[in-house]
TrEMBL record:
Domain ABC transporter substrate-binding protein PnrA-like: 38-321
Keyword set includes Cell inner membrane: no
UniProt source species: Marinisporobacter balticus
Family matches, as InterPro entries: ABC-Purine-Binding, PnrA-like
Keyword terms, alphabetized: Signal
Cellular component aspect of the GO annotation: plasma membrane
Signal peptide: 1-28
Protein name: Nucleoside-binding protein
Keyword match Transferase: no
């Protein structure tokens, strides 16, 4: 009887040990799952410290981390467009990142090439137009706040000459120049917009010199499609006025800065990551505007009078609350040819492929 009792007790101890071991293993596995972060990566064309384009995307990344603490987000800055970006994208995919945000137009073909090799990774490309099952594009209708900033510039200029320091002659930049000019001409028919190309996104010295050449040509307000405060600093040094881009850069030229068309990427990044994780994400081409909040006009400084601020608020409300948009006819090109008939609007396809200047722009679109 005693032997049987000992046998039963031994069996019970073995079962307890097995059960306890399984429980510990299960708890450890659950802990590991909970501790694992959802990996997201970003590649930037410039340094995070540019105070402009790359800085705005990095601010969006930080917003994502704040809203989703279980996300691990890494970034690689100053990645050249071309073969280098393809190598970096491949490395990020190999490291287990489930979503990769490529934040410059010139990364588009590299994204498409790498995405084919990693069908289980989601690639989101900023400002491009090519898509695939695991590739989407995203951008904002920056031309809307550009239009509003044109109103500000044209109400401020005394010489009726506004200088525009522009990066590359691609549709995105051309569209912005045209929208700015339409805004300026809407309140000051005598205003002209002089364009100088730098063929760079990030070159503080070159951008500053381009602004100086425009100031020497009679401009008393400088605006830009560049990633540094260089053009604004040039304006301040010559007692002119400036309009920035990407972020509120007022600290770099406080005596010149009026406002800036700015980006707010954070909410888009959060929505996208949530959709991919939930399995509801589908490839698409996102293009949000003032109504979505992905683009905005930064607060105008005290250098802008109250009349202008009220006018801008009225125009902004019209864009947000009605069907009217910036590229509504009649619109003529530089040669005076009607490109958009009265009451008609350019389609998104036409906007995304824009390769001509509106009336009022002084400059050429280089090949």
């Amino acid at each position: 009887m005693r032997k049987k009792l000992l046998g039963v007790m031994s069996l019970l101890m073995v079962l307890v040990m097995i059960f306890t071991g399984c429980s510990q293993k299960s708890t450890a596995d659950e802990s590991k799952t909970e501790d694992e972060k959802y990996k997201v990566a970003f590649i930037y064309v410039g340094p995070v410290g540019d105070a402009g384009w790359s800085y705005s995307h990095d601010a969006g990344k930080e917003y994502l981390l704040k809203e989703m603490p279980d996300v691990e987000a890494t970034y690689i800055e100053s990645v050249p467009e071309g073969s280098d970006s393809e190598r970096v994208l491949t490395e990020l995919a190999e490291k287990g990142n489930q979503i990769i945000f490529a934040t410059s137009f010139g990364y588009m073909d590299s994204v498409m090439n790498v995405a084919k090799k990693y069908p289980d990774v989601t690639f989101i490309h900023c400002s491009g137009y090519k898509t695939d099952k695991n590739v989407a594009t995203y951008f904002g209708r920056m031309y809307q706040p550009r239009y509003l900033s044109g109103v500000v510039a044209a109400k401020k200029t005394a010489s009726n000459v506004i200088g525009y320091v522009a990066a590359y002659p691609i549709p995105e930049v051309i569209r912005g120049i045209n929208a700015f000019t339409l805004g300026a001409k809407s309140v000051n028919p005598d205003a002209v917009v002089k364009v100088v190309w730098t063929n760079t996104w990030y070159d503080p010295a070159k951008e500053k010199e381009a602004a100086k050449s425009l100031l020497d040509a009679g401009a008393d307000v400088i605006t830009q499609h560049q990633d540094t405060p260089g053009p604004q600093q040039a304006a301040q040094e010559q007692n002119a006025f400036s309009i920035g881009y990407n972020t509120d850069m007022s600290q770099f030229a406080p005596e010149a800065y009026l406002t800036a068309p700015v980006w707010n990427w954070g909410p888009y990044y959060v929505d996208t990551v949530k959709a991919v994780r939930a399995g509801t994400w589908k490839s698409a081409q996102y293009w949000g505007g003032l109504k979505d909040g992905v683009v905005a006009l930064a607060p105008m400084t005290d250098l802008v009078d109250e009349e202008t601020k009220a006018l801008v608020a009225k125009e902004e409300k019209k864009i947000i609350d009605t069907d009217w948009d910036v590229f509504t006819g009649i619109i003529k090109d530089q040669e005076g040819n009607v490109k958009v008939q009265e009451g008609q609007q350019l389609t998104d396809e036409e906007l995304l492929s824009m390769d001509w200047f509106v009336e009022g722009v002084e400059g050429k679109i280089a090949e």
